[in-house]
Amino acid sequence: MTTDDNFTEHVVKFESHDTLSNEDYDHLGQSVTQHCKSYVFTLKDGDNHGRKLRIIDTPGIGSTHGSSQDDANLQQILSYINNLTHLNAICILLKSNNPRLNIFFRSCFMQLLDVLGENTRERIIFCFTNSRSTFYTSGSTASSLKALLNSLPHKKIPFTKQNAFCFDSESFRYLVARLNKIDFNEIEEEIYNDSWEKSSAQSNRLLQYIRMKMSIGIIPDESHSTKHVQLKINLMIRPMLETMRNILRNIILWNADLRNIS
Fold first, then answer.
1. Helix (H) or strand (E) holding 226
2. CA dist., res. 134 & res. 139, Å (int)
3. Which of 113, 140, 201, 253 could form a disulfide with 99 if both were Cys (CB 3.0 to 4.6 A apart)?
4. Whole-prediction pTM value?
């Protein structure tokens, strides 16, 4: 949604066959991403040339539908992670102007750590969005995030300039608006170009950080995870019920055949 000089609202969209079934922009306040999905990119710049980067997009938390929907999204994320052979990095996306991180966010964070294990704490990266309004810094979110991390029992998760990255997607929105034939003046174009330069530099720094620090994948520690056991049990429920149903169906058909024979 954008507004012109006459305060007329325009809806701009950028759609492809990959996003139509997995993203929902029509219900404000809920997670746009509906299901976990992998996107694979072949990098073409510098030292990363030819490397493949797999990014797993997941549903967010903080839905207007309440904690039940957040819990369902979290279970879906954990189930998806459970099927992976390894992880290189875990990116936590936060808005840079959010001074409060609620109790449920803390709960989700702890459950995620419980499944991934202690050996993943050094692989956590913090990505801050909407950061132009905070001069491309973590803004007011930093203090609440530090307080949350300090409150976690026995989880020394680093939060420094090295593993924090600040972006803003307005340059992408600008390009989509141009595709929808919306005009901008020179000053606005300079602002969006500057936003692109800064966000692009942060993206390259993120890739370089992962390549240098996290090129060797790690396997989540499952041995002491109660949540991992719960996920395994949940995954077994449906096939067990299907098996029981098929057995019962075969017994009924067998008994019917015996009656027909007799």
1. helix 226-261
2. 5
3. 140
4. 0.77
Q: Domain segments of the chain: what residues?
A: 2-224, 228-262
| Residue range 2-224, CATH number | 3.40.50.300
C-alpha pair distances (Å), 1 with each of 13, 66, 148, 154, 197: 9, 25, 33, 44, 23
Q: Are 160 and 167 in contact (CB under 8 A)?
A: no
Query: Going by C-beta distance under 8 Å and a sequence separation of 6 or more, which residues neighbour residue 137?
Result: 96, 128, 131, 166
Percent of the chain with pLDDT over 90: 32
| CA separation for the pair 96, 43 (Å, rounded) | 27
Whole-angstrom Cα distance, residue 260 to residue 93? 65
Task: Specify the residue for token string 């989880």.
Answer: 155
